[in-house]
Amino acid sequence: MSLKMVLWRAFPKNRHRRLFVGFVAAVVVFGLVVKLLSQGLDKAAHRFNDSDLNRDNFEAEFDSEEELFLDHFISKDEQNAKMEEELTALALSQVGNLPNRNFILKGRSGKFSSCGNFPDLFRLEFSNLHWQVQRIGNLTFYLYRAYVDKRPSKGTAGPLIRILAMVDEPNNLLNVHPVCQFWYQYDNKRPTIVPVHQKLQVWFTKWSKKGKYTAYQLTCSTPESKGIQKVPPISVSLVGHACDNATNNLGIQLVNDIGDSDFEEADPIDIGGSVANKKKLRFGVCVKGLDFLHNDQSYRLIEWIELLLLLGVQKIFFYEFSVHPNVKNVLDYYKKLGKVDVTPLTLPGTLPNEPGLTHLFLSNMGHSTNKRKNEVIPYNDCLYRNLNQFDWIGLLDTDEVIIPKNGNTWEDLIIEIDEQLSNQHNATRDMPITSYCFRNIYFFDSIPPWEKEIADPVPAHLHMMKHIYRAGNYTPPKKFVKCIHSTAHTLLLHNHFPLKCIDGPCNIHQVDVDIAQMQHYRQTCVRDLKNCDDYENSLVPDSTIWKYKDALTTRVNKAISHIRHLE
């Protein structure tokens, strides 16, 4: 009898037959599961017995694998958090004028009891990345940076906060009375309000009233100097009235005190005759915005940097609009050595900032006033970022160098001048020298036939060393000069001389050409100089720079060998 017939007789009802079949199927499945588990356990026991692993080892191995499994996910989260933190830090650092990351991202929301909102990151208004914008009345302020100035000054009891800005309607600034809102790390209730007590134009109106924007320095006393706060503020906002809502929040640039500098001493290269001095003077050089979009100046830049290092300059501060890839490689090389700092730069407001348009704008003489008015921003930024890092700051273009006639370094030069002045008796000697300024002399790019034979032994990539014929005439005194400025006394800088000093007029010393000169390597004279033919047709030999030739050749060749992708 078939199984089907047996089931039919035993369970005449369909419902009973279905229940029985389901029960049998469940028993079969259960049996298979038990068998599989038994086989698995036997194999596991056999494996552990063969490898002499006891239960403790098994549990330890299981726990370890579990921890690794969990660590994998934890590390991923940590990696993501770290990456997010690094990207945030990078984005904020590219702006260059914000408070620290934790402070600006706090986002203190809500209205204070009597004042405006804390301007967190997403309440700020930016212009061309590196400028923050504040509208006060009919004026628009393009704010670049804020700095603490601890230098002693008459009428002030403590540190000052200086703000650099470009303003679109400078003639109306006299009728505006902005205030500083100071923000603190541990005071979330309201800003501390201090009025702007000094508004200085970084320009002489008599030069030109043209130009879309004009640079200003705005100064507020710090609240701690007034006894209001015991700690310095983290940031400052410039507004029209005490409790206005700001669209700017400038991190206050702190500068190291004297003695805290992490810069190395000037290169100890002995080229003979350097004057020994117990206290080494510290020299920095500031360079306005580089605009070498298509011009490969890499070899000339290497020669120029290495010569400044031989002269005792410890660090060079470049500002950059756009540069040729080879020039970037050169700058990157010296950045890694700690000899160069590069700060990206843009123009404020509606001025062009696409690299090609910026280049056309800066090279167009029709916009020369706009160009020159913008140049004072990086120069003064460089001064205030380095107030306590250097004793002296020089402003130079990359085709200019101040060469001592007698000594070999700028320190030798300062010592020689001071010794000369100490033997003179005049009223200005009682005042500290605020700037040493040097006469301009042209070394033109074209090499006269009689010079080629003399310059042949010099490697072709050493432009300054090959050009040893200069104009017979210096440019007029106080015209086209370049200076080295005292960081202890200078308040405002222009390309060619100081505009203002602390507590009185600047004491500028015009250095005699028998002591030093500012060598200017150009294709021709600057356009502002009349009678250029008189300079180009009166060439005389001047190989003063050759005292650096051997040391400079070695250093330049070494640098070239280390800089990759220099074609």
UniProtKB/TrEMBL annotation:
Topology versus the membrane: Single-pass membrane protein
Primary subcellular site in the record, as a coarse category: membrane
UniProt keyword terms in alphabetical order: Glycosyltransferase, Membrane, Transferase, Transmembrane, Transmembrane helix
GO molecular function terms listed in the Swiss-Prot or TrEMBL record: glycosyltransferase activity
Cell compartments where the protein resides: Membrane
Pfam families: Glyco_transf_92 (PF01697)
Transmembrane region(s): none
Family: Belongs to the glycosyltransferase 92 family.
Protein name as annotated: Glycosyltransferase family 92 protein
